[in-house]
Amino acid sequence: MDVHRRRVDPGYPRLRIDRGRGRSRTKKALIGLLVLGLVAGVVGTSAIATDTLGAGHLYERFLAKVDRFLAGPPPNRSIDPEVIVTPEPASPAPSPTPTLPPLASGQPRPTPGPTPTPIPRVAVDVDIVQNHDAVFAHEIDKDWCAPAGVTMVLAVLGKGDPTEARQREIASRVREWESYSDSHNGDWGPSAMAQALAAYGAPGYRTRIYETRADALRGAAKAIALTHSPVILLAWRGAHTWVMTGYRANADPLVFADAKVSGTYILDPWFPWNSSIWGQSDPPGTFQDAQNMIDNFLPWQRPEGHYGSRDGNFVVVEPTLPRG
User: Fold this and answer.
1) Contacts of 69 (CB under 8 A, 6+ apart)
2) CA–CA separation, 213 vs 261, rounded Å?
3) 34, 67, 194, 222: which has the highest count of C-beta atoms within 10 A?
4) How confident is the model at residue 279 (pLDDT cuts 50, 70, 90)?
5) Where are the alpha helices (DSSP H) in the chain?
6) What is the pLDDT of residues 147-176, one digit of tens each?
7) Distance between first and last Cα of the chain
């Protein structure tokens, strides 16, 4: 997923390579590699290793651009069906006490059975993570919110520590899962994240699309309650990854279809960076109230093109299998 701190939404145009420009691009890539070799010879590999004056970061950015160039346009692989979740009806009102039918003369009235105790409608506060710092992964590169998010989900599920090495490894495998229908820019989309999770031992994640924010948060809360696993929210109009580990609601969403989620517990891989568009990021496990969700969890709208049912709706990557 591509995140840039600009006054417009992040996103790259799709890379096109034609015969007329193929040699030119190849020549530029070779020249770039030659320049990189000269720079490395002058600055030294130790500067890259220690990130002196940002050399390591620039080196990684250059390798990423070369990788994207060599990979070409993203393949048009099929992705898992994206489920459009329709709004649930409100919880039905309690039925009135039934009236017993009249009895025939001399017939004894049956003893009524016990009245079931109604489930109380009380507020709930759920978070499946106790130590958020222990499972947090800061995105190494500003475009790596997706591999960082996948790294954190795996850490919550006990599938590996959230190390930089793990994040780099996941990021390096994106070519196995990318698809044009998932991300017109190439690299990461919600389907690629679900496939990455499956590849690392967490199968069952699926992309869900909701028409409203309220339904999306309620659906995410139900998924967490049912599976005891974290959810991925596509924040910032689909440009950023948030990992949701819990929620507060005015009622149990598994019991009451009209339960209202008032906020979420979030792991934001952008922390501790500040964004000129979205503001200062919050520490791991911060409770994001309703206003924060309105400001950050916005309908999908990507500048690189249309995405069918995603456009204008709220996109969530939810677990569907109970946590082992």
Assistant:
1) 15, 25, 29
2) 10
3) 194
4) very high
5) 19-43, 45-50, 55-71, 132-135, 145-156, 164-172, 190-199, 213-227, 290-296
6) 999 999 999 999 999 999 999 999 999 999
7) 29
Q: What secondary structure letter does DSSP report for 284?
A: T
CA 175 to chain centre: 19
Angle between helices 145-156 and 164-172 (to 10 degrees): 120
Angle at CA 88, nearest 5°, toward 82 and 94?
155
- Report which listed range, 10-14, 26-30, 40-44, 208-212, is most confident: 208-212
CB atoms within 10 A of CB 259: 24
Closest alpha carbon to 213 in 291, 130, 102, 308: 291
What are the φ/ψ torsions at residue 272 (nearest 5 degrees)?
A: -100, 20
Strands 231-235 and 124-127: unpaired
Q: Judging by beta carbons within 10 Å of its beta carbon (0-12, 13-18, 19+), is residue 98 exposed, middle or buried?
A: exposed
